[in-house]
Amino acid sequence: MMEKLMVDSLVTWATEYKVDAFRFDLMGHHMKRNMIKVRETLDSLSPAEDGVDGTAVYIYGEGWNFGEVADNARGENATQLNMAGTGIGTFSDRLRDAVRGIGPFDTGQTLLEKQGFANGSFYDSKQTVPGTPDEQLATLLLQSDQIRVGMAGNLADYAFYDRNGALVTGKDVDYNGQPAGYTVDPQEDITYISKHDNQTLYDINIYAAPQSTSMADRVRIQNVGLSTVLLGQGVPFMHAGSDLLRSKSLDRDSFNSGDWFNKLDFTYATNNFGVGLPVAGKNQGDWDIMQPLLADTDLQPTPEDIAFSTALYQELLEMRYSSPLFRLETLDEIQERVVFHNTGPDQLPGLIVMTISDIVEPDLDRAHELFVVLVNANDEAQSFTMSEAAGLEFVLHLVQFDSVDPVVKTSTFDRDTGTFTVPARTTAVFGFTPQELIRSLIKEVEALSEAGVLNDGQANSLIVKLENAIKNLDKGKAKVALNNLNAFMNEVQSLVDEGVLTPEEGQSLIEAAEAISYQIQVLYNL
Question: By the 8 A CB rule, do 23 and 32 touch?
Answer without folding.
Answer: no
